[in-house]
Amino acid sequence: MLIEFIIYKSIICVAIFALSLGIAAYSTWWERKFAGLLQDRWGPSRAGKWGLLQPLADGGKMLFKEEIIPSVSNKVLFVLAPGLFIVTAIIAGVLIPWAKPVMIGDSIYPIQIADVNVGVIFLLSVGSVGVYGIMIGGWASNNKYSLLSAIRSSAQMISYELAMGISLIALIITAGGTLSFAEIVAAQDAGFANVVWQPLGFLIFFVCALAETNRAPFDLAECETELIGGYHTEYSAFKLGLFLFAEYINMFVSSAVMAGFYFGGYNFPFANELYTALGLQEGHWLISLIGFGAYFTKTLIFISVFMWIRWTIPRFRYDQLMNLGWKTLLPLSLLNLLITVIVEYFRGNINF
Fold first, then answer.
1. pTM of the model
2. Given CA atoms 182, 177, 157, 327 in this order, what sign does their dihedral have?
3. Buried (b) or exposed (e) across 119-136, using 16+ Cβ within 10 A?
4. Which residue among 91, 181, 269, 272 sits deepest, i.e. has the most Cβ atoms within 10 Å of its Cβ?
5. Residue pLDDT, tens place only, 208-241
6. pLDDT greater than 90 at residue 203
């Protein structure tokens, strides 16, 4: 049994790791195509049919360019920063339950790397650690623009993680008090998706996710018009590629988290009726495949929304960003928590 467990976990780890890297790579292609669609141009079209080989060309360019490390930088931390940033981005994906468990023989295999009973706290913790890659890279570069970017990034993280954490507390109350990602997703099978009970909480979480991933209109940490390139001004070649790649992995994981927390993950309307009509029983591989397709589709929709916002909405000023975090999102998250407690009390799910 131990050998079977190790083999199964290894396969799941490799599959999800490859999925994360593949989606991140082709998110760069889709973003450029999507931007071209909005701006009435073609986007990538030369490297392969429809430009499908463009991510490979970009990756090769980053990989084989000359590595330049500034002589005045802290070289150990300078090299460590991009690795820390991308590792924390990938780790956040281990909790995502992509589909219902599959039954093979007498054994049940969840389509998830790890089901931690404090999964929500783990996600917040990993998200908090990720910003250290930006802070270390900005400080170690010994560049005034990079240092200012690191300071901006840390202040942005503090202001938005408070509202994000409070919105998740309201979600946990709605989900019956569980902190398990898998249980939150599974609970949406029998009723409405959590977004029905938490529309304001979802909106707050979505805005905070944009800020956490440093996506426009909250990309003040790499504001080209003010800070040249922000925290990765001094980075080049492979290390720069890791920073840029990690941003797309963060976007992919954030989209999957939102789809799971608020939109049912692998659950979808009339799913049980469909499975009954097909004569499928719980644990059948086809149920997992259909559920994975539903979850993956929701995730891709969120990724497209991230890109649409970037190419549509202008960047905030830094003071506007801070005001939005402290004076708007934080009070709204507290109001949402109060409303959630009242509603759940009258629904009989909370007893004082």
1. 0.91
2. positive
3. bbebbbebbeebbbbbbb
4. 181
5. 988 888 777 887 767 766 677 777 788 888 888 8
6. yes
Is a pLDDT exceeding 70 seen at residue 314? yes
Q: Give residue 136's pLDDT.
A: 85
Q: What is the pLDDT of residues 83-125, one digit of tens each?
A: 888 888 888 888 899 988 888 777 788 888 888 888 888 888 8
Question: Cα(188)–Cα(263) distance, rounded to whole angstroms?
Answer: 8
d(CA 167, CA 202): 8
Tell me which amino acid residue 53 is. Answer: L
With contact defined as beta carbons under 8 Å apart, do 26 and 32 qualify? no
Per 3-state DSSP, the chain is made up of helix, strand and coil in percentages (nearest 5) of 70, 5, 25
Q: Where are the domains of the chain?
A: 70-346
Helices and strands in the chain: count of H runs, count of E runs: 14, 2
DSSP symbol at 67:
P
- Smallest CA-to-CA distance from 79 within 65, 68, 64 is with 68
Task: Dihedral sign for Cα 262, 264, 268, 269, please.
Answer: negative
Q: Which residue carries 């999102």 as its tokens?
A: 329
DSSP at 325: I
104 pairs with which residues across the strands? 107
Look at residues 43, 5, 38 and name the one whose alpha carbon lies nearest to residue 26. 43
User: How many angstroms separate the CA atoms of 270 and 261, rounded?
Assistant: 19
